[in-house]
């Protein structure tokens, strides 16, 4: 991303519906409501990944996920008392006690001369500390593991939206971190001290009342967000200091010249230490704790840096790039803690633009816990550096920017796929897509096409309001795909209406399951969430219905002899059911259910999208439609003459399909992948980086296609064709 924005400018289109800016003006316009022409409601969280996570995962809206400005303001006022200067001073004793307790553990490791994972040590320390600060008691370590396991799922746009939508139970972590019983016990205690919950509950005296779900959601959010941000801040600061021992020596000298003993290190005093604060600030400049999709906003229609961003476009303001830009910083890629104190006239850093430093964001959604996080970071780092002599044992083998991943937070991803299993399934199903099988499927397509023609003819005779091509495309492709997969059709075309299963598909559940962005139909998503994922139910009803349909079809198919005329036969030949058992195991049925869901949903969505876009483009370009009709009617006097072999000679028809796939590829955004660490197009991409190649951008690029943004089937014709045009010879 940095390479793109340095090479191509301050604004880069990184996907079909996503624009990334890298300027301080964009930061203000997008995140500071009402300024720089952004307009109060110009950019919102509504429709972003955080919005989806908030709706699906949290028991109630919290200050992180609230979309409505008034609701956010109410929650912010309720939570703010936990972060006042007075509360901060009271909370220091809790912080100091936990640091002391963990230093006792480190002492044992130091005596045994053992190698210590300082990141894990800091993670457990901050977990206990924040649990105590939030609820007056530390939370169990098992709940830390729950949070870490879920947060390591890579948040890569459509994939995560699919994952969260399909498996919302995985993401109900606020309830796991703070069960209702624990919340109730905390609220009933009479000895509550200076914890967050006490401060929040105290706002009721000011007329600000939160429900139990809102208390649970906001309290758990404070722990989760504070935990990861603090650990990232401290780990990255130690990483930079220990990679350059001279920098660590400067910090240690500053501390030991200021304090006679570790016990003398207090929050108020260390807040004034220039090198300590510079070390932390500089680490957060280079490694901003939250550096990804969590800061994205969706445009309602507004200007950013003089550029109009239409409604529905996702806007990213890339902090990583801004905080490393030579436009704003001297020696932007270097760790220079002194830049934060040595800023006078004539210094190297005189012209650094500190408005480009926004690790806590800005505006009404700026981080409430900024001062608390900085106080914890200062205390932990100061006492750790004062007490211990440390060196980095993996300095040669670990490079943060290369070996850490960042999509929402800085994390080590666990990619939940098995490439060997994928190859086995693909090898089995691939046989069903060979030439022989495709020819066999032609009869299915012919049958359903005839049903479609009859239905459309009757519809046009009886209804003057036109035809919903999108709906009919979905029915045709759904019937074809289900019959090709199972040997049985749902006959939605013959009936002229959607079945329950197809309705679930078109309402985005299955589309999301194969990675199709649900931002395209925000109203459908809201309806889906409101009715199908009702809080009255403990299960995702829609997903259960959809997968139950897949399972039932799979069980039905198991009850019939295997043939070679449907895809499931090939799958069952590769994965035969256990012999002598009528009751198949849950695991086996779940496997078949998953394959069925993928085949049907993937095939229906992509084929339906292609059909709809082809008809749309032809209707928008009547001259192309006329050319297609001329070819088809000359070649086929009767519709019965059209078959799988003869249609291959309809060159203009083939060109229309190819051009439709180019101009509106069904999977437009490209499927993200986690890079193993390799060179792509001459650029080294570090291990763990999320990479994708949006097909729609390449397909519409003038570098590859003449008049790239126009629908011109002629570019695909052979040179001897009457409509061939030489202007496309270099495509």
TrEMBL record:
<comment type="similarity">
    <text>Belongs to the cytochrome P450 family.</text>
</comment>
<feature type="binding site" description="axial binding residue">
    <location>
        <position position="367"/>
    </location>
    <ligand>
        <name>heme</name>
    </ligand>
</feature>
<dbReference type="InterPro" id="IPR002401">
    <property type="entry name" value="Cyt_P450_E_grp-I"/>
</dbReference>
<comment type="pathway">
    <text>Secondary metabolite biosynthesis.</text>
</comment>
<keyword id="KW-0503">Monooxygenase</keyword>
<dbReference type="InterPro" id="IPR050121">
    <property type="entry name" value="Cytochrome_P450_monoxygenase"/>
</dbReference>
<dbReference type="InterPro" id="IPR036396">
    <property type="entry name" value="Cyt_P450_sf"/>
</dbReference>
<keyword id="KW-0408">Iron</keyword>
<keyword id="KW-0349">Heme</keyword>
<dbReference type="Pfam" id="PF00067">
    <property type="entry name" value="p450"/>
</dbReference>
<dbReference type="GO" id="GO:0016705">
    <property type="term" value="F:oxidoreductase activity, acting on paired donors, with incorporation or reduction of molecular oxygen"/>
</dbReference>
<dbReference type="GO" id="GO:0005506">
    <property type="term" value="F:iron ion binding"/>
</dbReference>
<keyword id="KW-0560">Oxidoreductase</keyword>
<dbReference type="GO" id="GO:0020037">
    <property type="term" value="F:heme binding"/>
</dbReference>
<dbReference type="GO" id="GO:0004497">
    <property type="term" value="F:monooxygenase activity"/>
</dbReference>
<protein>
    <submittedName>
        <fullName>Benzoate 4-monooxygenase cytochrome P450</fullName>
    </submittedName>
</protein>
<keyword id="KW-0479">Metal-binding</keyword>
<dbReference type="InterPro" id="IPR001128">
    <property type="entry name" value="Cyt_P450"/>
</dbReference>
